[in-house]
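User: Hi! I have a protein structure encoded as tokens and I'd like to know what sequence might fold into it. I'm fairly new to this, so please keep things simple.
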């Protein structure tokens, strides 16, 4: 199986955008947290999260036959050292395009954490400190969630459904677990206040 170092090398070879790199790191952290929760293979789950969008920057046209995630799936298959369940989970996170449904626990978890990490990043970036560690109450996330004009592109229904599929409560378990995972690597995500606006 591809190891973490090889996965990161592939990600950085294909992706230069800092925000996209941060997104993949956030999803990796969330996947690792869930692997620990479910007693699954943390390395495998983490690599799945890290790789899930590695081809997006080069192939953002998701309507094209060679768009995301099709090119990425092909590259991973060709490498020959990526387990089928990782490839299946990555295909399933774009099920509306690939037709691969998230059936495995790992695939369902990837769907559940993917957009949520983006939403939590948005919540952190509108705080005066721009530090995700300053989000100490889930209530502040929930208030933003209710505001449909905030991070409007985030599919809240998909996240809610995915959490339900995992058998975890959205507000009691899911959001706190993903938030804590991201807070633990705040510096790697540039969500540690370093970019706080002086104004």
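Assistant: Happy to help. Inverse folding works backwards from shape to sequence: for each of the 199 positions I chose a residue that suits the local structure. Here it is:
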């Amino acid at each position: 199986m591809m190891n973490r170092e090889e996965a990161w090398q592939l990600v950085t070879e294909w992706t230069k955008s800092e925000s996209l790199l941060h997104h993949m790191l956030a999803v990796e952290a969330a996947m690792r947290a869930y692997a620990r929760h479910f007693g699954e293979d943390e390395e495998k789950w983490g690599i799945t999260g890290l790789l899930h969008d590695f081809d997006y920057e080069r192939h953002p046209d998701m309507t094209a036959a060679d768009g995301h995630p099709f090119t990425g799936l092909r590259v991973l298959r060709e490498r020959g050292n990526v387990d089928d369940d990782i490839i299946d989970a990555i295909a399933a996170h774009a099920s509306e395009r690939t037709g691969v449904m998230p059936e495995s626990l790992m695939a369902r978890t990837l769907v559940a954490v993917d957009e949520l990490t983006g939403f939590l990043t948005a919540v952190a970036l509108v705080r005066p400190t721009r530090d995700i560690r300053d989000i100490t109450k889930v209530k502040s996330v929930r208030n933003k969630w209710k505001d449909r004009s905030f991070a409007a592109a985030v599919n809240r229904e998909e996240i809610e459904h995915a959490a339900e599929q995992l058998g975890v409560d959205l507000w009691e378990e899911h959001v706190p677990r993903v938030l804590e995972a991201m807070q633990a690597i705040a510096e790697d995500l540039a969500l540690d206040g370093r970019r706080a606006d002086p104004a």
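A useful reference point when you look it over: The chain has ten helices and no strands. Feel free to ask if any position seems puzzling.
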